[in-house]
Design goal:
Blueprint (H helix, E strand, L loop, with lengths): L2 H13 L4 E7 L5 E8 L3 E2 L7 E7 L3 E7 L8 H21 L11 E5 L6 E5 L4 E2 H4 L5 H20 L2 E2 L9 E2 L4 E2 L7 E2 L15 H5 L6 H17 L19 H6 L12 H7 L5 H4 L8 H21 L31 H6 L31 E3 L6 E3 L5 E4 L5 E3 L8 H10 L1 E3 L11 E3 H5 L4 E6 L6 H13 L8 E5 L2 H16 L17 E7 L5 E7 L2 H4 L14 E6 L1 H4 L6 H7 L9 H9 L12 E5 L9 H7 L9 H18 L6 H5 L3 E5 L22 H10 L15
Parallel strand pairs: 19-22, 19-23, 23-24, 24-25
Antiparallel strand pairs: 1-2, 2-4, 3-4, 4-5, 5-7, 6-7, 8-10, 9-12, 10-11, 13-14, 15-16, 15-17, 17-18, 20-21, 21-22
Helix pairs in contact: 4-6, 4-8, 10-21, 14-15
C-alpha cells in the first residue's frame, strides 16, 4: 500500500469511523498479524499532546485502544521518539511479565506499527476505575492493598530499569482486585537524564525540575503521595513530608523509611518498601525462563580469556620508568592496565622506527607568537605514509596545489606570500601531490594538514553492498558536526574544508533531511571519503581519515584494496538482514531482496585475509563490529538494553565490555559463526548495536526521518583503542 493509499484510508475513516477494514501490526514477539477492524471516533489523549486515541474492534468483537500519531503531529521531532520509547517499554514489560499473574498491574500491549504513515500502539481496554473516582469508597484493607500493589508495580519496573513517571490517581485504576498502571507514555530508562514532567504532588521535585537522572525512586515518591491521598482523602503540597503525616498510623512505617523524602537518594528501594509493607517479593523466588544468550556470553568470556593469554605471552616486561626517571603514564609508555605494549605506528610497521609525535608531550606553556614582521615558516619536513599507495611522503612546498570546482589541480606558489594569516589559510585548504604516482598510475594528493600535524589515523568501513556503511559514516560525521565528541574532550576540525563541506552537503544533510543515500560507486583507486583533525586537551591534532569503499570493491581481492594492509583501524558493518536467522526479519528480507548468508560477509573475509598477523595469529589493528540496522530488532532484550539508551558521558571500559558481550552472544545465538570472524581474528575488537537511520526506507525516503542511534559508539571505541580519547580507561588487548 502506498502512502497516498494510507492518506485516503485515514481520511475515509475520519469521515466514517465505523467502517470495517484490515489492520496489520506486530506483536510483542515480533509476529506480524492482520485483523478485520472497526474504528471508533478519535479523541485527544490526555497528557499526550498531538496523540489521538480511539477504540478499535478487532475481528468479531475484541475491543482495544489505539493511540495514534497523526500526520498533523509529526512535525514535532520528539513525538515519534516518545511513541517509540513507549512501545519499547510496553513490549519489554509484556515480554518479561506477560505470562505472570502479577503482570496484571500493567496495561497490556496488544501490538504496534511504528513504520506506517501514522504509527500507533494498541492496548487492551483497561478494567476498573481511576482512583480519582473510587478512592473515597475504599476501606482500610483495600487502601493497604492498593499501596502494596503499587509498590509491587514499581519493583517490577525497577527490574527492567524503567521509570514510569505517570503514577497518579487519575492514571492508576482499581477494579476491586488489581491495581493497574496507565500506559507508559512518559517512561524513561533508569539512569537517563530526567526530562521535566508532571506536577505536584504526584511527580517528585527532581522529576518536575528535570534535574539529575531518572531513578526508580521517582516512582516511589508517587506511590507515597497516593498512599497519603487514600488515607487522608486529599493531596498534600508535594514539597516534602506532609505536615500531618504523623496523624496516620498506617503510614508510620513509610514515614520513618524516608519514602516522603524530597531527595530520591534518601528514599528506600522498591525491595525495601515491599519488606516494610510485608509484601512478598515475587522476583526473589521466581524461576525465570532460561536465557537463550547465556551460552554466547560464556563463549565470549572464554574467547576473551584466550586473547588475553595470547597477548600476555607476547608482552614485553614492564619498564620501571623512563630515562629521565619519570614513571610511564597513559600516553607514551605502556599503561599498567594494558596487557601488551602500544601498537607501533603505521609508519613504523612499514618503514621501521616510530613517529616521534605519536604521543606528543603536552606543552607546559604556549610558544611565543612570531613577530608580525616575520613570515610564517613552512611546516617542518616530516615523513607521512600516503594512505592510498602506502609510500612515504615528505612535505615539499613545490608539490602544493589547489583543486578548482572542475577538479583541476592548480599549482600553489607561496614564495611571495609573507602575511601569516593568509599563508595559514592557504595551507589549510591546499593539497600536496603524492610524488609516487608513476606512469599509468592515478594521480592523487593529500590535504596539507595530513602532513603537518600529528600521526594520522585511517579508519576503513568494511561490509558488502547495501549494509549501510555510507549511511553509518554520514550519521557518524553528522553527530560529530553537532558537537557529539566535545563532551569526551575532543575538538574536531575539517581536514580540508572544501571536501568536508561537500561531504556534509551531499551525504550528511541529505540523510538528516530523510533521504536515502545512493550506493557508493566502485572505484579504480581507493580514496578516503572525508577527514577530520582531532585534538584532545591541547595535544597536537591528529588527522583521521575515513575510507568508505563500495562493497563490490571490498569483496574483491584486487588493486583497489591494496591500501588495506596499511589501515590503522576497521569498522565492520554487519547487516542483520543477511546475518540473523529470525523469522520476524523475513518480510523485510523479501521486500529488499536480501537472502540470509550463513557464510558471513564476503568483504569481511577479504579484508581479514589481507591483514598481517604476528606470532599470536591475531590482527593488531583495532576493530569494531557495528551491528547496523539494529532498529529492525530493537525490541529484543539484549538490543533494547543498549539501543534504547543514549551514550554515556564518558567511555567506560566495563560498559564497553558488557555491550560487546551482549552483542557477541546475540550474534552467536541468531547468526552463523562466520559473522563473528572479525572478533575472532582481531586482538582488540568491540561490538556495538547501532542504527544509522532508525527506520526502513520507502522508496528513496525515510518516512519518519532518519533517527540515528549510538552511531558514535564504534568511533569512540576505535579512538580509545588508538590513544585518541582523553580520560578513557585503556581498552586492553582482547577487550572485546
Amino acid at each position: 500500500m502506498t502512502e497516498s493509499d494510507d492518506d485516503t484510508r485515514h481520511a475515509r475513516h475520519a469521515r466514517h469511523p465505523g467502517l470495517q477494514e484490515e489492520l496489520e501490526f506486530s506483536t510483542h514477539l515480533g509476529d506480524t498479524i492482520r485483523f478485520a477492524v472497526r474504528y471508533g471516533a478519535d479523541r485527544r489523549a490526555p497528557g499526550r499532546p498531538g496523540v489521538l486515541v480511539r477504540e478499535v474492534t478487532l475481528s468479531a468483537g475484541w475491543p482495544v485502544l489505539q493511540y495514534r500519531l497523526p500526520r498533523s503531529a509529526q512535525g514535532d521531532p520528539h513525538a515519534y521518539g516518545a511513541l517509540e520509547r513507549e512501545v519499547s517499554a510496553a513490549v519489554a514489560l509484556e515480554r518479561r511479565y506477560g505470562t505472570e499473574k502479577f503482570g496484571e498491574v500493567f496495561t497490556r500491549v496488544v501490538g504496534f506499527d511504528l513504520e506506517g504513515a501514522e504509527p500507533f500502539v494498541l492496548y487492551r481496554l483497561p478494567a476498573g476505575s481511576p482512583l480519582t473516582e473510587c478512592a473515597d469508597r475504599l476501606n482500610g484493607d483495600e487502601q493497604a492493598w492498593v499501596l502494596a500493589q503499587l509498590a509491587l508495580a514499581v519493583r517490577l519496573l525497577d527490574e527492567v530499569h524503567l521509570v514510569h513517571r505517570t503514577i497518579a490517581p487519575d492514571t492508576v485504576r482499581w477494579d476491586g482486585t488489581h491495581v493497574r498502571l496507565g500506559e507508559p507514555y512518559a517512561v524513561l530508562r533508569a539512569g537517563e537524564a530526567r526530562e521535566a514532567f508532571g506536577a505536584a504532588p504526584w511527580a517528585s521535585p527532581e522529576q518536575r525540575a528535570g534535574r539529575g537522572t531518572a531513578d526508580t525512586r521517582d516512582d516511589l515518591w508517587s506511590v507515597g503521595r497516593i498512599g497519603y491521598y487514600l488515607l487522608s482523602g486529599h493531596p498534600d503540597r508535594g514539597e516534602g513530608p506532609p505536615e500531618d503525616l504523623g496523624d496516620y498510623r498506617r503510614l508510620a512505617a513509610l514515614e520513618h523509611s524516608g519514602l516522603f523524602a524530597a531527595d530520591a537518594a534518601q528514599r528506600p528501594s522498591p525491595v525495601e518498601l515491599l519488606r516494610l509493607l510485608h509484601v512478598p517479593d515475587p522476583l526473589a523466588t521466581a524461576v525465570g525462563a532460561p536465557d537463550p544468550l547465556s551460552r554466547g556470553r560464556a563463549e565470549f568470556d572464554a574467547h576473551l580469556a584466550r586473547k588475553r593469554r595470547a597477548a600476555a605471552s607476547l608482552s614485553p616486561p614492564e619498564p620501571s620508568g623512563t630515562e629521565d626517571g619519570r614513571q610511564p603514564g597513559r600516553e607514551g609508555a605502556r599503561n599498567p592496565y594494558d596487557l601488551v605494549a602500544p601498537r607501533p605506528s603505521l609508519r613504523a610497521r612499514l618503514f621501521g622506527g616510530d613517529s616521534a609525535d605519536r604521543n606528543p608531550p603536552r606543552p607546559t606553556s604556549p610558544p611565543p607568537p612570531a613577530p608580525a614582521t616575520v613570515a610564517v615558516p613552512a611546516p617542518r619536513r616530516r615523513g607521512r605514509m600516503c594512505p592510498h599507495c602506502l609510500l612515504s611522503v615528505e612535505y615539499d612546498e613545490s608539490l602544493l596545489v589547489t583543486i578548482d570546482t572542475k577538479g583541476n589541480r592548480l599549482p600553489l606558489d607561496l614564495a611571495a606570500e609573507q602575511r601569516p594569516a593568509h599563508r595559514r589559510e592557504l595551507l589549510r585548504k591546499a593539497y600536496h601531490l603524492c610524488p609516487h604516482a608513476g606512469p599509468g598510475d592515478e594521480a592523487h594528493e593529500l590535504p596539507v594538514p595530513y602532513l603537518t600535524n600529528g600521526e594520522p589515523l585511517s579508519i576503513a568501513f568494511v561490509g558488502s553492498s547495501s549494509v549501510g556503511k555510507t549511511h553509518l559514516l554520514a550519521a557518524m560525521l553528522g553527530e560529530v558536526e553537532l558537537g557529539g565528541l566535545e563532551r569526551y574532550g575532543l575538538k574536531c576540525l575539517p581536514l580540508n574544508p572544501d571536501t568536508h563541506r561537500a561531504f556534509l552537503r551531499e551525504r550528511v544533510q541529505s540523510l538528516q533531511q530523510g533521504r536515502r543515500l545512493g550506493s557508493t560507486v566502485q572505484q579504480t583507486f581507493a580514496r578516503f571519503a572525508d577527514g577530520l583533525l582531532v585534538s584532545a586537551r591541547g595535544a597536537t591534532p591528529r588527522p583521521v581519515v575515513f575510507f568508505d569503499l563500495a562493497g563490490e570493491d571490498l569483496a574483491q581481492d584486487g588493486m583497489v584494496t591494496n591500501f588495506l594492509s596499511g589501515v590503522d583501524a576497521f569498522v565492520f558493518v554487519l547487516d542483520p538482514l543477511r546475518a540473523l536467522r529470525m523469522p520476524s526479519l523475513d518480510p523485510v528480507r523479501e521486500q529488499d531482496g536480501l537472502p540470509l548468508r550463513d557464510l558471513g560477509d564476503e568483504a569481511f573475509t577479504t579484508v581479514l585475509n589481507r591483514m598481517e598477523r604476528p606470532a599470536d595469529g591475531l590482527i593488531g589493528a583495532p576493530a569494531a563490529i557495528a551491528v547496523n540496522k539494529s532498529d529492525l530488532v530493537r525490541f529484543e532484550p539484549a538490543v533494547d538494553r543498549w539501543l534504547g539508551r543514549a551514550l554515556p558521558p564518558r567511555i567506560d571500559r566495563e560498559a564497553l565490555r558488557a555491550e560487546s558481550r551482549d552483542a557477541y552472544a546475540f550474534l552467536a545465538h541468531y547468526a552463523s559463526r562466520a559473522w563473528l570472524k572479525p572478533f575472532d581474528d582481531s586482538a582488540r575488537c568491540t561490538l556495538h548495536f547501532v542504527a544509522a537511520t532508525g527506520g526502513q526506507a520507502k522508496g528513496d525516503r525515510f518516512p519518519h526521518g532518519a533517527r540515528s542511534r549510538r552511531v558514535l559508539a564504534p568511533l569512540l571505541s576505535i579512538f580509545a583503542m588508538c590513544g585518541l580519547l582523553p580520560g578513557a580507561e585503556p581498552i586492553e588487548e582482547g577487550a572485546g
